[in-house]
Design the sequence.
């Protein structure tokens, strides 16, 4: 199978380039990550992040034939050749397929991604109805792979100011949690021309999310909450 | 050679559940703590845990910690230390409630309490009816837990060193631990992280096997570092083979599937677990189920063209149950097995999953080793928690959902012990002058070595040897050959060469360093397994099919130097209750 992969090692390359690989696959190689591991056995200098190899750790997000996805759950069957692999767009490249995610995580941290509840905790669990708990479905499953935010033009233009789809999905995860008491504070923070309102519902985020989540919906829900609190 | 040194109150290596639970405790206590992780914290392998956390909350069926303790002791095949097991089971409810208060999105029952599901080996009333003890967030409990712990650490402002790899333990002349050397993977820089307390929470190492549920990062780094620094490794012959890894791929299918009502079938469509465990059936202990699966395959009742796997059936369950309680499993089965479990069974095979052994500790997370005066002396400044540690609460076989419990209880306990110990030890010990020599020598060998075998070649050989010679059933001649083969592989691992010489994010170098750790773990496993001439828990010898309490009710200690073995007694006396006396183990 034929691959064309973005290469850049700041230690020796002045500029990035695309390198072609032609490799013989084994029958057990089903996913793109299997092929990349095979390439690494012939060229150990190809650098990428990977860990769980089952789509739950979020390490191996990359741009696959123009579309962001996780290598470990992208089947090789159906990929157009040469398979063109590039790092996630819009973030600085550290090396090859590895990007610097500092800005991405900074935005995630900015929305206070933790439960705020100032009541003294009870002896046992805080109660939550199954219906209230169901509000968190489609939100808490995010794996922070950054496929969404790095597919978002608004995030490309303003990665320092726009929270981005991943961060906003998590902002809503806490707004939607019946146990959280910081709704007003959270909405105040997001009520800003950039942090939330740079979303122009282009919907690339929902389109590429490897976990099938929908940040655009979450963003709309946050906007609804803002409207509701003004009336 | 002088290298840059950074000073902390405590250094934690590993940012999975145990490392982050401990980090949270230390940060909240106002200590200066550094957490090193090879990957961004939420990518640690805790993220892949599926089924739940065991705690006798009694939200669904009547339950109490003492029954949980009995099940854990029995599940361990009596090799677990009963003081530590009592300690863990008594604290289970508290650490789960605490996690809920942290924001963990547990599933809920109609009355608003935490949802619980049945898991293997759980009983009411000391071996009676099935208990319902595993607290779950769908089948993504580990993911929900790891993210919750990370989030709390963000709030507590814990300092993470992300994409840093621990290289070697720093011990001074007295044998006390004063920190670790570490590699910044992004820049290639090596640093000494000096600390008054060093906690290893580096997780498992099932990457020593070809067929493994484990992530690429599970390379036993903590065990390798400990072994190279003359700390023994305990009970390394005990590896859990999970009954249900996806056939041909290894990805885990949670026991929660059987907890929710799924069961196993052979090629005749027979629910064969009824023969092996008439009472608990598909919810017998994992060692029992994995042996049953292996025997079915050996008897020619496997499925498929090569009769080499079995089937996990859940299509009789309500589609809504699968969609709400097992959504992750469905996703995995569809992606990796081309099977939608709502309509068809999942092909599965026993797959290496969990290391019951590890760095020996007491129930406070302090590493204990024979070093100055006694066989179980506390190594000053050194702690371990989670899968890399052997407390031992799992003994010969771990019960499902006791691992997430283990990391919460002992992550917290180790941190509390560190807080106490640091009140006494106000000052950093001086670093030895040769602080980084060992690490720098390993790196410079990789820099200069030419014409060696590739890391991939040698690690493939290791995995194949471990898989063939040290699997679900163990045969005497295979073990002896395995020890010889592993010796050869260890030799080859010391001469590997890498093509990539870049300083920047050199993953080839990381993999070569990981191989050093894997080889320590594999060697310890093979040597310990060859010596234990009985069958107990997950260690099943073809030539010694029975458990032998007279000779073998004891823990193995493996010393890397000279590949020497020693033993220490099992702690049969609990903290407050009566001992559970070893008896025949049936399910």
Sequence:
């Amino acid at each position: 199978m034929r691959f064309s992969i973005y290469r850049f090692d700041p230690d020796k390359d002045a500029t990035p380039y695309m390198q072609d690989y032609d490799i013989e696959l084994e029958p057990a190689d089903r996913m793109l990550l299997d092929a990349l591991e095979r390439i690494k056995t012939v060229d150990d200098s190809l650098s990428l992040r990977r860990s769980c190899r089952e789509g739950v750790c979020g390490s191996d997000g990359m741009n696959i034939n123009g579309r962001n996805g996780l290598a470990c759950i992208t089947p090789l069957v159906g990929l157009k050749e040469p398979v063109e692999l590039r790092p996630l767009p819009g973030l600085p490249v550290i090396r090859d397929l590895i990007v610097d995610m500092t800005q991405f995580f900074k935005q995630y941290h900015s929305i206070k991604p933790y439960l705020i509840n100032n009541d003294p905790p009870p002896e046992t669990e805080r109660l939550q109805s199954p219906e209230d708990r169901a509000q968190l479905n489609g939100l808490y499953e995010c794996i922070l792979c950054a496929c969404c935010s790095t597919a978002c033009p608004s995030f490309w233009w303003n990665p320092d100011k726009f929270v981005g789809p991943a961060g906003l999905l998590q902002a809503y995860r806490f707004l939607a949690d019946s146990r959280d008491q910081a709704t007003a504070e959270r909405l105040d923070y997001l009520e800003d021309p950039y942090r939330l309102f740079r979303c122009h519902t282009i919907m690339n985020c929902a389109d590429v999310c490897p976990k099938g989540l929908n940040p655009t919906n979450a963003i709309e829900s946050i906007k609804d909450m803002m409207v509701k609190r003004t009336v | 050679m002088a290298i840059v040194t950074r000073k902390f109150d405590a250094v934690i290596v590993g940012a999975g559940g145990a490392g982050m639970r401990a980090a949270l405790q230390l940060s909240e206590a106002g200590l200066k703590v550094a957490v090193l992780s090879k990957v961004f914290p939420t990518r640690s392998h805790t993220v892949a845990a599926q089924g739940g956390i065991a705690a006798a909350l009694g939200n669904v069926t009547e339950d109490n910690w003492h029954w949980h303790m009995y099940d854990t002791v029995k599940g361990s095949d009596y090799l677990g230390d009963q003081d530590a097991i009592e300690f863990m089971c008594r604290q289970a409810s508290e650490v789960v409630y605490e996690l809920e208060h942290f924001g963990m999105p547990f599933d809920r029952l109609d009355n608003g309490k935490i949802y619980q599901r049945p898991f293997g080996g759980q009983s009411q009333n000391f071996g009676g009816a099935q208990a319902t003890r595993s607290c779950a967030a769908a089948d993504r409990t580990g993911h929900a837990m790891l993210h919750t712990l990370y989030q709390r650490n963000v709030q507590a402002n814990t300092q993470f060193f992300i994409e840093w790899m621990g290289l070697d333990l720093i011990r001074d002349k007295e044998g006390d631990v004063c920190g670790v050397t570490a590699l910044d993977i992004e820049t290639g820089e090596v640093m000494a992280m000096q600390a008054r307390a060093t906690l290893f929470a580096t997780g498992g190492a099932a990457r020593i096997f070809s067929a493994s549920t484990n992530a690429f990062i599970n390379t036993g780094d903590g065990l390798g570092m400990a072994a190279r620094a003359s700390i023994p490794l305990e009970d390394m012959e005990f590896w859990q083979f999970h009954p249900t890894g996806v056939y041909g791929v290894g990805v885990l299918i949670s026991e929660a599937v059987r907890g929710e009502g799924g069961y196993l079938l052979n090629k005749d469509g027979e629910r064969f677990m009824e023969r092996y465990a008439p009472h608990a059936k598909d919810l017998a202990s994992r060692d029992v189920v994995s042996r049953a699966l292996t025997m079915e395959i050996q008897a020619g009742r496997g499925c498929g063209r090569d009769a080499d796997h079995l089937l996990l059936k859940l299509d009789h369950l309500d589609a809504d149950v699968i969609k709400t309680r097992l959504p992750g499993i469905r996703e995995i089965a569809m992606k990796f097995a081309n099977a939608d479990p709502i309509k068809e069974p999942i092909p599965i095979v026993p797959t290496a999953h969990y290391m019951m052994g590890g760095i020996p500790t007491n129930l406070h997370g302090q590493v204990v080793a024979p070093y100055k005066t006694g066989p179980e002396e506390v190594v000053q400044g050194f702690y371990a928690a989670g899968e890399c540690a052997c407390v031992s609460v799992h003994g010969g076989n771990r019960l499902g959902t006791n691992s997430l419990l283990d990391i919460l209880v002992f992550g917290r306990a180790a941190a509390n012990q560190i807080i106490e110990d640091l009140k006494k030890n106000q000052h950093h010990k001086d670093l030895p002058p040769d602080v980084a020599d060992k690490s720098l020598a390993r790196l410079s060998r990789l820099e200069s070595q030419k014409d060696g075998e590739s890391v991939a070649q040698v690690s493939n050989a290791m995995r194949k040897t471990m898989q063939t010679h040290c699997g679900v059933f163990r045969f005497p001649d295979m073990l002896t050959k395995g020890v010889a083969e592993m010796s050869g592989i260890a030799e080859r691992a010391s001469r590997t060469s890498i093509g990539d010489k870049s300083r920047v994010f050199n993953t080839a170098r990381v993999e070569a360093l990981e191989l050093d750790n894997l080889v320590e773990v594999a060697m310890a496993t093979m040597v310990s397994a060859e010596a234990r001439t009985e069958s107990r828990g997950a260690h099943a010898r073809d030539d010694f099919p029975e458990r032998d309490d007279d000779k073998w009710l004891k823990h193995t200690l493996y010393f890397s130097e000279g590949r020497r073995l020693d033993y220490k007694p099992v702690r049969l006396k609990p903290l407050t209750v009566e001992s559970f006396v070893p008896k025949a183990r049936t399910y």
Summary: The mean pLDDT of chain B is 97. The longest strand of chain B covers residues 190-200.
